[in-house]
Amino acid sequence: MMDVDDALGQENLKTTLIADQGGDAILQTAEQMENQVAVSTPGSNPFLTAQAQVANLRCQAFMQKMLAAELRQEAGRIAHDNVLVKRRTAATGGINGLITGALTAR
């Protein structure tokens, strides 16, 4: 169980670092696009639109990666909880066996 907890903690840390890096990259891209708009020529609008659409797709892909990481974390938490429930069920079954044995031995 401790290995599972450690692995989940490491995964959470990695996800947080990736989210910070991705957020910084998105902000840098937005700033670059703003600077290009300021110095663009009148005929470059289609190119800037295409660049904005590519940046939008990258942002969406990043969001999907983050969602997938969150789903993996939730799956790990559910698996961890499931192990605890199974242990409690086994312990309860053992106690029931002891009680039944004690009542029938008399």
What does this 3D model show about the protein?
It is a single chain. The chain has 106 residues and is mainly α. It has a single domain, classed as Helix Hairpins. The chain has 2 helices and no strands.
In summary, what is this structure?
This protein is mostly helical and 106 residues long. It contains two helices and no strands.
Tag the structure with descriptive keywords.
2 helices; mainly alpha; Helix Hairpins; 92% helix; 106 residues
Q: Element order, helices and strands?
A: HH
What kind of sheet is the major sheet? Answer: none
Number of strands: 0
CATH topology: Helix Hairpins
Average pLDDT figure: 83
Count of the separate structural domains: 1
Low-confidence stretches: none
The CATH C-level name is: Mainly Alpha
Class derived from helix and strand content:
mainly alpha
> How many H/I helical runs?
2
Q: Assign the CATH architecture.
A: Orthogonal Bundle
Q: Percent helix among the residues?
A: over 70%
The shape, in one word, is rod-shaped
In whole angstroms, the N-to-C terminal distance is 40 Å
* Quaternary structure annotation: single chain
Q: Radius of gyration, rounded?
A: 27 Å
